[in-house]
Amino acid sequence: MWLRNGFHVTGRVSLLGATIGGNLGCDQGYFEGAGGESVLASNIEVSGDVLLRRGFRAVGNVWLNGAKIGGDLNCYQGQFENAGGDAIVAQSIAVKGAVFLCQGFYTTGRVSLLGAKIGSVLDCGQGRFENPDSDALFAEGVEVRGGVLLRHGFYAVGRVSLLGATIGGNLECGQGRFENVGGDALLVDNSEIKGSVLLRNGFFAKGVVSLGGATIGGNLDCHQGRFENADGFALFVDSVAVGGAVFLSKNFYAHGRIFLQDAQIADGLYLDSAMLAPDSPTTEVDLRFARALTLADSQVKSRSQWPQPGKLRIEGFTYEKLSPDSPTDSQYRLRWLQPQHGKGRFSPQPYTQLARVLQASGHEQEATEILIGKQEAARQYGNLSRFKWFWNWFLGKTIAHGYKPTRALFMSLAVIIFGTGLFHIGYRDGWIEASDLEAYTIATAEDSSLTYPEFFPLTYSLDVFLPVIDLHQASYWIPKASLGEPVDKSIDCLSTGIRDGGVLLAYFWLQIMLGWVLTSLWVAGFTGLVRRLE
């Protein structure tokens, strides 16, 4: 049946329930509908193709609800006009071949493919769909055995909805432009895409791109894509299951929230060279409780490549390894983790997760620095009481929270050496005397056969410092708080500081306390007790 090559009708053309053994061809036909309807062809059966192409023009609705088409529905270079209403209504249509809304296809009004079944591809490449503030392409529940092609100059003003769709191939949107400011630009929630979702190579969206709950058999590829929704979600990928990798890389740009919470990614999450708008209050990357096999990122070179403090959410995010090209430097990684913190918001899991991965890959020292950084961040961002804040600070300065217990050992050596010098001066100048003067007097008498332990400054300092070892020095010699004037009047400044013995006695007590504290910390650090308690 041919209504083409200059065919012009004013009023409604009704083919309701018709059966056509060949093609329905309307190329270059001009249909001006009355009362909003131009072509009424619901429930028709066409053995061949339906051709509404090559200059076809319809003013008013074109109804194809429930139609059964044995070949293709081909509307390339067709023009469909019904501003503010439905331009094409093809709900529950069954097409054994492909649907072509492409190569100069143009509509003002909604194109509805609700529940359509398409045996090949849905090709909208270079198609223009305009229906501002409403649905431009409404294809919820559509079943497409091949791919859905919204690419190569595809342009939509209004929402493109593929909610609950089943797509046997790829969803390809490279070089497509989607605009629906303040709403969903591309809605693919709860859909099943057996191939890949390609939002790349010049893809542009102004509004929300949403794939919440979708199942993707291949990759989610957004490299060189641009996503803009300054007041909300730019890319919403909540609870998505991806059989391949997710690429937010190679000049990927986002102005708004990137939401991948609970995403399950079988392969890698690629974040290298991602660019984020740093000045937007909603620019945020949310990876909470997402899971990926590999985290692949590159060292950012400017603030614009990563969120501001408080705008990175990675609590519960898990991954098995870093890619070979990802940085492992601990100082860089600590800066990378810092944006997750906000005022009063601290999560230790991202630190332990990263440390575990670094340790498994042989970067032991870097892993240790990350775990130390976790405790430092807890003090800086966590809601610690004053006592816990001080204890955290003290452990950090002394034994690096148990990860560097040798610090306590070196501090102990310093105390012992300092004490050796101080006690030597004190003994030389008479500020240290025998604790048992009677026994000392008898032992030093000329005709006495008794002995009294000699004073050795190093052994004395060790005996004072070590809490559980008795070297028989501290029990026989003790500083005196007041011994009068020293024998040598020309003593140096250090001995002047202990002229009356008070400072020396105070240091004696201090070294005892330091001995208990530092040896306890040293033992706790080496046994891992501090790390288990913090």
UniProtKB/TrEMBL annotation:
Q: Does the keyword Transmembrane helix apply?
A: yes
Write out the entry's keywords from A to Z.
Membrane, Transmembrane, Transmembrane helix
- The UniProt transmembrane annotation reads 506-530
Top-level taxon in the UniProt lineage: Bacteria
Name the chain's protein. Membrane-associated oxidoreductase
